[in-house]
Amino acid sequence: MAAVSARTRSLGTEHAFVVLAEVNTLAAQGRDIISFAIGQPDFVTPENIRAAAQRAMQAGHTGYTASAGIPELRRAAAAYLSRTRGIAVDPEHVVVAGGAKPFIMYAILAVTDPGAGDEVLYPNPGFPIYESQIRAHGAVPVPLPLVEREAFAFDLQTLRQRLSPRTRLLILNSPHNPTGRTLTAAELRALAGILADYPDVWVFSDEIYSAMVHDGEFASIASQPGLAERTIVVDGVSKSYAMTGWRLGYAANAVLAPYFSTWVTNTDSCASSISQWAAVEALTGPQDEHRAMMASFTRRRNLIVEGLNSLEGIRALVPGGAFYVWPNVSELCAMTGAADAEALRRRWLHEAGVAVLADRQFGPPASGEGHHVRFSYANSEANIERGLQRLGDWIRQARR
User: Count of H helices and E strands in the chain?
Assistant: First the structure.
């Protein structure tokens, strides 16, 4: 029988979708599952954005576009990035794709060569597709641990130790999935100071949650002196405008934009024309519904963090952004005989009817870090309260 490549056999996955399939299977069997597993807003895309898509269809905007995207969206994205990042972004330096995720692949392909020993540093725990794509395209993954004692910020000394002459790319994600950690301007200045000693290192700044900062203002590494030229700023409309299914993201970098455009030509040809027109409306139209969604996520964060910290054996830091909380469940595992967070996750799903993700699904836990799970609070306040009640009942029963 014809063989499948080793690269394909070793390709990683996004475990949120694996757990989602488990949830759907149980739901089909009649189980009532409260899911905190998937990172997807529970809101409907705002009406004005949906109306813009309808207008685009009625106007006949249903064919191919330029691979880099329609000019109207590139201008809108450039203006948005310039305003929110404090840097000057030219529309010609913006490329549009079918979501923000493809730019992980495009960036790795653009700055590393397979078999050359080129290294890519990525956050651990982190979005699992980072490591998967690094390996798939022949680069060397170098995990950069985010540890609880640093409130899941980068340990700068560890970063210095792991940067090398072979490093080609550093992946940043702020606000961060899965911890919700948001890097401050002061932390980014310190990071930029280290990167000044490595002028050949590109930075991939995954800022898909940039509009979802709960406290203070969002800060981008691209705003630091000398970093804009070698930072790939990536954002999109999926999370902040409840448009996950529209599959629309964009990236900006003056040098790499033409190469990204060529990669789009080689893969998807172009992003959906209808989604592009909808994204124009998202970025330039009324922001009332967007602001209401963001305020709701802040209320939910406060509710779930307070609730988790009231449960025996669980300790949760307050996330600064996105819609994730990453509580330490080490004590609870010991109390209930769960070997690790994955075992606890399975028991919660099948015994309590509550779905979360385990730490190992975001990379191997660092030594001494204990056990963590990820809650996505992209769920209603009523469901958050119901889920917390179920967990409280389960903990009392499991202890007995």
Answer: 14, 12
- Rounded Cα distance, 42 and 17, in Å: 16
Cα(276)–Cα(75) distance, integer angstroms: 12
The answer to whether the beta carbons of residues 227 and 221 sit under 8 Å apart is: yes
For the segment 345-377, what is each residue's pLDDT rounded down to a tens digit?
A: 999 999 999 999 999 999 998 888 999 999 999
Beta 231-236 vs 202-206: how paired, if at all?
A: parallel
Q: Tens digits of per-residue pLDDT, 252-274? A: 999 999 999 999 999 999 999 99
Confidence of residue 400 (pLDDT cuts 50, 70, 90): low
Distance (Å, whole) CA 236 – CA 59? 24
β pairing state of 167-173 and 119-124 = parallel
pLDDT digits (tens, 9 = 90+) for 78-125: 999 999 999 999 999 999 999 999 999 999 999 999 999 999 999 999
Question: Which domains can be identified in the chain, with CATH numbers?
Answer: 6-44+289-399 (3.90.1150.10), 63-284 (3.40.640.10)
Q: 244 to each of 80, 211, 365, 371, 386, how far by Cα in Å?
A: 19, 15, 28, 29, 25
* 3-class DSSP assignment, residue 14: coil
**Angstrom distance (rounded) from CA 91 to CA 259:** 15
